[in-house]
Every structure is written in structure tokens, then in C-alpha cells.
Amino acid sequence: MEEIKLSFSPDTPPLSVIAALSLSSSPVTIDSSSSSTTVPTFLFSDGRKLTGASVLLRHVGRSTNSLPGFYGHDAFQSSQIDEWVDYASVFSSGSEFENACTRVDNYLQSVTFLVGRSLSIADVAVWSALAGSGPRWESLRKSKKYQNLVRWFNSISLEYAEPLNKVMAYTVKKSSGKPVSATAPRSKDQPQAVRAEHDKGKPEVDLPGAEVGKVKLRFAPEPSGYLHIGHAKAALLNKYFAERYQGEVIIRFDDTNPAKESNEFVENLVKDIGTLGIKYERVTYTSDYFPELMSMAEKLMREGKAYVDDTPREQMQKERMDGIDSKCRNHTVEENLNLWQEMIKGSERGLQCCVRGKLDMQDPNKAMRDPVYYRCNPMSHHRIGDKYKIYPTYDFACPFVDSIEGITHALRSSEYHDRNAQYYKVLEDMGLRRVEIYEFSRLNLVYTLLSKRKLLWFVQQGLVGGWDDPRFPTVQGIVRRGLKIEALIQFILEQGASKNLNLMEWDKLWSINKKIVDPVCPRHTAVIEERRVLLTLTDGPDEPFVRLIPKHKKFEGAGEKATTFTKSIWIEGADASAISVNEEVTLMDWGNAIVKEVTKDENGRVTALSGVLNLQGSVKTTKLKLTWLPETNELVKLVLTDFDYLITKKKLEEDDEVATFVNPYTKKETLALGDSNMRNLQRGDVIQLERKGYYRCDVPFVKSSKPIVLFSIPDGRQHQPLAH
Predict the structure, then answer these.
(1) Most buried by CB count within 10 Å: which residue of 231, 342, 424, 558?
(2) How far apart are CA 511 and CA 618, in angstroms?
(3) CA 474 and chain centroid, separation
(4) Which residue(s) pair with 411 in the sheet?
(5) Orientation of helix 394-404 relative to helix 290-302, angle to 10°
(6) CA 211/CA 516 separation, integer angstroms
(7) Please, which residues have CB within 8 angstroms of residue 404's CB and are 6 or more apart in sequence?
């Protein structure tokens, strides 16, 4: 291997180059003692030289093999990376530093990395420029000014803490003379999940025996329901490993059970996979291989490695539990093949039979006790109709198709751990190439059903509006509730491929989501219709006037909204009840007012207020900051919808009867009025209603008589059950 030495002046260390070398574990000798070297230089053993930090950084990016995509996955990404590497120098210009922070902060609103889906030298260049700026960046980092940029910086600092802390030894805080720490500060604003990962270290997420460029993975859902958050973890881990190892992902529909499957599920699974941003080489179906699977089953029968069994199902299950051989286990090859033909025809005799693998009925692992390979099923298949009367089981078809399709690593959740030995034994009996299984923990969430059978029950009982119901843990359901896919990806990748089984709180996921939507979503105003109170400002404008104000005071990209100012304004009934006579209050986006009169009915409920403006008053001195709406006919009708968990038990066990734990009150609708700007909302838009929370528009404005429907988005605070 060619020897390379990095030489530079100790006063001007090329942090980006040192970081790239450390991250890629490149075997380069570092010499920082050369005061004669003013420009960072690579000295090659044959006398050649490369000079200049950006040149050296690009060389490391091109030459490393340990970090896929470090210099992009294609020519376009490489060109994007070049742009960022060149731009990073702007951070060294004192006058342009905050402008550069603003630009990158805006760019990072909806992406995790600067280019593509993985770390590149673009990230290294900008990260190093910020880290090397010392106290200036440290002070901004602790503020809330550049939330996207800080999130990105801290995320990289956490993910690559060890190599980056080595880098920071080369720079010193001017004020204290102590090395700057690359590790992200554990602030109260940082997601709890991130802090936990910081404490315990990142989990290992390497694939055993994986080679860059040779990894082939598959995501193989059964088309018997919509994609849910548990499937999403498997899908996104496949995507992650494919990108990391420059491999590929196949989408395969495991369509071996016609009783549960349909084209509707296939179409929506494809849609959901697209929503997750998963790029795949092709779509295949297990049913594509039915002829080959039948031939393999027959081959195993001829070799004495499988047999046809007509033992009744309950008796068969008992014999498997007790380790008792079936009376059919020693059938002759001819007897097996005759019964096999009856199964193929779907005859009355065939319907009594199944094919079982002849493994080991005394194995302590019950998954090895002659599993079923084939069953008779006369139902029509959603894709191939009535061509077959027999269908392979998952245990038989999965290892076969994995091997035939060239899959190198099969990712599956640890709930299948006991069946791993069976998987390998089936491949061995078939005489096929071995496929490595890689386990990860199933994603379990509190008060959440991830069983498609139980989810289907809710749909069939009419307890939800469909598979995309916002109370459902399906991808379509949680997106409709207001979850950003970027939040889901971050949530899952923060867990890595951990094998630890744990019950996760939804709060962590919604906290991440809030950090994504809050910096950019427009602000609007709503007043609950019931018991709203009119506040008349006696010195208010005689004629209404309109003023344009920002929809988001810290994000110009949210645009502006037209706010109408009138003599009489609507406020919340609860706010009106809290106001005392002669109390000064703040009307948000207007100024202060002093309430002079409070009118109540015979029950003591406030029915009207009267007051005067005091626009010179200090906002800091008032206790109540009130949202309000003008008294005009331009206001829009709203339905504010809140949701609760579908079940009342934190974790349902497999044998729990779901009907016993159904939550009877999971949806609450509140009528409200909203500002006129909400007429422009589109379905899927996320907004914040001042003092109420975040909402996603599910039904936009159509006409004045039809309300806009907004779904409440959890913000990560502790869940509170719906109040009747």
C-alpha cells in the first residue's frame, strides 16, 4: 500500500481533511510539526504531491472504500458535493458567517444530510468549518436561532463521536485553551432518544460478511394489509444497509395465502414503500416461483426429506408439542407422490393432506419438528386466479426464493429467532446457497396494535374509517395524522439495528416530528365557537383595516397572512373568564388593551367584554396573551379533531381478546372559527394554531357552509386521555 503523509502548519490545521481521514480510517501519517508548510499537503512515497485543503478532501472522498457515498453515488451527487466543499470556505469570512448559517439552516429543513442519504465530504467540510470557528459557533449552537443546522451538527457529532473528537484535538478555544468537544451538548431540547443513544453509545449496525457493492437485500411484506410502522422499520433498515454497502433492495410480495391477500393491499404497499423513499431494483412475487417451488417439494419427497401427512391439524399440533412422530412420517416415496397429486388436484382426499419437512421431531427447538411446507387451499389467488390448489408456507418459500434471487442478507425481526435454524436447515436440504439472516428487534409501541389480523378486525367492525385512519399505526394513518416521514426515518435509524426488545413511547417519535415542523409551519388563529365572547374596543378602528404580517416570525419562507383589525373581536370563552375588570391584556399581533367592563349572565358566565386599546403598553407586564379573531363574515368554520389510542392496555399479548380492550372514546371533534387565510390551506398542510398546537389539514376549504377539518398532531408531551 502506498504511503502518504499529511503535512501542515500547526497554526492552520485542515480540519476537514483530518476529519475525513479519521472517519474513513485512511492509513495516512499526520505531521503537524512542519512550520515551513503553509499549505496542507499530501506527500506520496514516490515523491508526488497534492496541495490545498479542498483538493486533499476530494482525494480522500474519492479513494475511501469504507464509507459508501462519501463522494456521492453518481456524477450529479459528486457535483453537488463539490459545490458544498467550495461553499464551506464562506464560514471563515467573519461578515458572512451568519448568512452562511442561515442558508444551510434553510437547506436542512427537510433533509438529514447535505447530499443524498448518507454522510459525504460535503457534510465533513461544513461541519469542520463550523467546529473550527470556535466560540462563535458554540454560542450560536446553544441558542435556538438555527435549529435545523444545530440538529444536523449534533446528529453528526453523536453518530461519529469517536473519530470527530480526535479531530477536535487539533483546534483550541481561544478563550480557554481547551479542546473543543465534538460531542453534542445534552440540552433539554434534544430528543430523549438521542440523549439515551449518547449515553449508551451507538448500536452496531454492520452486516456480517457484507462486501461493498455485493449486498443484495429484500423487503418481503405479505399483501394482507397496509404497511405499518413495524414494517417501516424493516423497510428502512433494508434501505439503510443497501445505501451503506452500495447494494440493492428487491421488493417481494410474499403472496402465498390467498385467503388474506388482495390487489388493494399490493397497490397500497407499493404506495407506502414510495412514501418511505425506498428505491428498489424491481418488484417480484413469491407466486412467480410457484412452479419451481412445487418441483423442489417433489424433489425433497423423492430424497426422503419431506412427506405428505393427513393427520388432523389439532392432533398434528399436539404431536409436534410432544415430539411424537406422525404415522405418515415413514410413507414410501410412491405413497407421498400419490397423495401429492391429490393435493395438486385439490380433491377431497388432497384437502385432508399437507406436506411436511422431515427434520427432527425430538429437537428441543419446536420450529425444527417437521414444519409444514405445503397446504391445500382451493381459494382463488388475487394474482393468478384458480391455477393452483396448493400453496407453499412462508417457512418453505422464503429460504428458497431468497437463495434463488441472490439475496445475501435476509433482515427479519428477532421474533423469528427460533426459526433461524429451520431456515438454514431447509436451505441445506434444498441444496441451495446459504443466505445470512440478520436480526433486529421488532418495533413495539405502547397502546398500539401491529397485528394485521387485529387491525383488520377494527376495520371490519367499523371502529375506524379504514386502513388510513389517523388512529392506525399504518404509514398512511400516521402520515394522515401529521407525521413527517423524515421524523419516522430519524426515529427508526436512531434505534439502529438493535436486538433489544423494548416497548417504545409514541412521545419520542412526536418530539422528533415537532422539531421538524415547528421551525417552518405557518401560524394561524382559531377560536372555539362554543361560548366565544365578543370584546368591543371602544376606541378601536371605526372601519376595519388589513395588515400583512408574517405567518412565522422566524421563517420568512412561510409567507405572509392578511390580518383584519376591527372594533369588535372574538376571544375564547375560557380566556374571557380569566379576565378581571381594569386588567391589561395583550392581544397577540396587535398590542395591549385594558378591559373596562365584564358582563356576565345569571350563571356567572362571561357574555361580553368592553375595553380600550393601550398600544403603548408593555407586553412584558401582562399576564394574559390572548389570541383573537376579527368580527367579520370572512372567518372560516373549522372542525378541530383530537384522537386517542384505540386500546386501553399498554401491551396486548398474543392471546388477548382485542374486543375486551377497545377504547370507547378515541375521537373528539370541536367546532371553531379560523382566520380567513386558512381558506388557502391544502390537504396535508401542517400549521400551528396559536396557543392550541399543531394541526394537519385533512379536508380543505370548499365553501363557507362546509368546515375545514384539522387533525391535531401530538407534540411529544405526555399523552393525556381525551376528556368527554
Answers:
(1) 231
(2) 33
(3) 12
(4) 438
(5) 110
(6) 35
(7) 289, 292, 432
Report pLDDT digits (tens) over 537-565.
999 999 999 999 999 998 888 999 999 99
Q: How far is residue 376's CA from residue 390's CA, in Å, rounded to a whole number?
A: 4
Chain position carrying cell 442519504: 117
Query: Is the distance from CB of 306 to CB of 297 less than 8 angstroms?
Result: yes
pLDDT for residue 37: 56
Residues 408, 395: Cα–Cα separation, whole Å: 18
**pLDDT category of residue 29 using cuts at 50, 70 and 90:** confident
Going through 631-689 in order, the beta strands assigned E by DSSP cover 636-643, 667-674, 686-689
The answer to whether 568 and 631 have CB atoms below 8 angstroms apart is yes
Query: Contact at 8 Å (CB) between 42 and 56?
Result: yes
Q: Is residue 507 helix, strand or coil?
A: helix
| Whole-angstrom distance, CA of residue 578 vs CA of residue 443 | 45
- What does the alpha-carbon distance between residue 501 and residue 504 come to, in Å, rounded to a whole number? 9
Determine contact, residues 88/16, Cβ cutoff 8 Å.
yes
HEC assignment per residue over 349-403:
CHHHCEEEECCCCCCCCHHHCCCEEEEECCCCECCCECCCCEEECHHHHHHHHHH
Q: Which helix (H) or strand (E) holds 98?
A: helix 97-107
Burial of 347 from C-beta contacts in 10 A (0-12 / 13-18 / 19+)? middle
Predicted confidence (pLDDT) at residue 184 exceeds the cutoff of 50:
no
pLDDT tens digits along 658-711 = 999 999 999 999 999 999 999 999 999 999 999 999 999 999 999 999 999 999
Cα–Cα–Cα angle for 320, 324, 330, nearest 5°?
A: 105
Q: Are 632 and 570 in contact (CB under 8 A)?
A: no
Supply 693's cell numbers: 398546537
d(CA 197, CA 203): 8
Give the CB-side neighbour count of residue 112, counting CA atoms within 13 A: 19
One-letter amino acid for residue 317 of the chain: Q
Nearest to 124 by CA among 94, 162, 153, 166: 153
One-letter amino acid of 571: I
Gyration radius of the chain's alpha carbons = 32
Q: Which residues pair with 577 in a beta bridge?
A: none
Whole-prediction pTM: 0.70
| SS3 (DSSP) at 563 | strand
Q: Report the distance separating Cα 497 and Cα 659, nearest Å.
A: 33
Distances (CA, A) of 545 to 540, 588, 611, 616, 680: 11, 16, 19, 19, 20
What grid cell was written down for 203? Answer: 448500536
The answer to whether the beta carbons of residues 443 and 415 sit under 8 Å apart is: no
| pLDDT tens digits for range 329-367 | 999 999 999 999 999 999 999 999 999 999 999 999 999
Q: Which residues fall within 8 angstroms of residue 604, CB to CB, at 6 or more apart?
A: none
Tell me the sheet residues that pair with 696.
686, 711
In 421-544, where do the E strands start and end? 436-440, 444-445, 503-504, 523-524, 526-528, 533-537
Q: Tell me which residue of 227, 334, 223, 302 sits closest to 272, measured CA to CA.
A: 227
Task: Write out the three cell numbers for 97.
Answer: 458567517
Which residue matches cell numbers 371602544?
538
Name the amino acid, one letter, at 412.
R
Assigned C-alpha cell, 529: 365557537
Confidence band (pLDDT; 50, 70, 90) for 167? confident
Q: Are strands 629-630 and 568-571 parallel, antiparallel or unpaired?
A: antiparallel
| Amino acid at residue number 649 | K
Alpha-carbon gap, residue 352 to 378, rounded angstroms: 12
